[in-house]
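Changelog note: in this version the structure field was regenerated for every chain. One regenerated record is shown below for reference.
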Amino acid sequence: RVSYPLRDLFLRYLRAHALVTAEQLAHEFSLGIAIVEEQLQQLREQGLVMNLQQDIWVSDEVFRRLRLRSLQAAREA
């Protein structure tokens, strides 16, 4: 049994897509924007996602991978 189905669904989606807006999530899962924004805020408070600029969200795992790749590319340059 899944304890937090919506949270887990959002996390899976965010881990599979680099940068996502609340509107994209609302459209993808046919949810109201208020529900999506509330879930994203809860995920942010739990340290599982980051809010970059305005309405752009990224999972902490994806952000770490992007940062590592960026640092590796800078070292190789």
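Spot check on this record: The radius of gyration is 14 Å. DSSP finds four helices and three strands in the chain.
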